[in-house]
Amino acid sequence: MSESDPRIDAYIAKAAPFARPILEHLRALVHEACPTAVETMKWSAPHFTHGGRILAGMAAFKQHVAYGVPMLDTSKGQADKRNEAMGHYGRITDLSDLPARRTLLAHLRQAAKAIDAGAKLPAFKRDTPKPALTMPDDFAKALARAAGAKKNFAAFTPGKQREYLEWILDAKQEATRARRIAEATAWIAEGKTRYWKYAKC
């Protein structure tokens, strides 16, 4: 195994208890499949590179783990659950949610070979388009009250608009929703997208 990155050690240590064994398992599989893989942090999450290109990446959230292999060619029948969550394998909440170990190793080796061959990233096509989201009245009113916010939001691409809408609509409690609307309105008034903090990571 190549040298471990202490930032990934710290990331895993801070993850929720359910996520730690999943992250450790995925990390070990990457190094087993590709012993020359290099550990790093990109977009505030653990990633693994091969030949200077991203081989795999993983991230822990409050209730699930996401894992992706960018060079995985899903046109060859490989699983792709990016409609369900970030990454290729959907929302991972337990090791049992992952494909078999041999399958994951095969995916990683396939991706490493593709990188070695200089292949381009495979195109991703969603099975079904995401349904349009309706602008909530409380968010619309907040944008209208903040100077420039409504105009800036309208100038965002549909994808950037959706990132904000999903964040607000996913709030489970009124207090959380109100806080997110206030933060979103302030950021949008400054012309910032939802993930502006990670834009230069």
General description of the model:
There is one protein chain. This protein has 201 residues and is an alpha+beta fold. The protein is elongated and about 55 Å long. It folds into two domains: 6-116, Aspartate Aminotransferase, domain 1; 137-198, no CATH class. A hairpin with a 2-residue loop joins strand 1 and strand 2. Helices cover 42% and strands 11% of the residues.
Task: Annotate the secondary structure layout.
Elements: H1 6-14, H2 19-33, E1 38-42, E2 45-50, E3 53-60, E4 65-68, H3 101-116, H4 137-145, H5 149-155, H6 158-169, H7 174-189
Helix pairs in contact: 2-3, 4-7, 5-7, 6-7
What is the number of beta strands? Answer: 4
Shape: elongated
Major sheet details:
4 strands, antiparallel
Tell me the radius of gyration.
19 Å
Distance between the termini: 26 Å
* Widest sheet: strand ordering: 1-2-3-4
What's the helix-strand series?
HHEEEEHHHHH
The domain count comes to: 2
Strand content: 5-15%
Tally of helical segments: 7
CATH class label of the largest domain? Alpha Beta
CATH-level-2 architecture of the largest domain: Alpha-Beta Complex
**Helix share, percent:** 40-55%
If you average the pLDDT, what whole number results? Answer: 84
Low-pLDDT stretches: 74-78, 80-85
**Category by helix and strand content:** alpha+beta
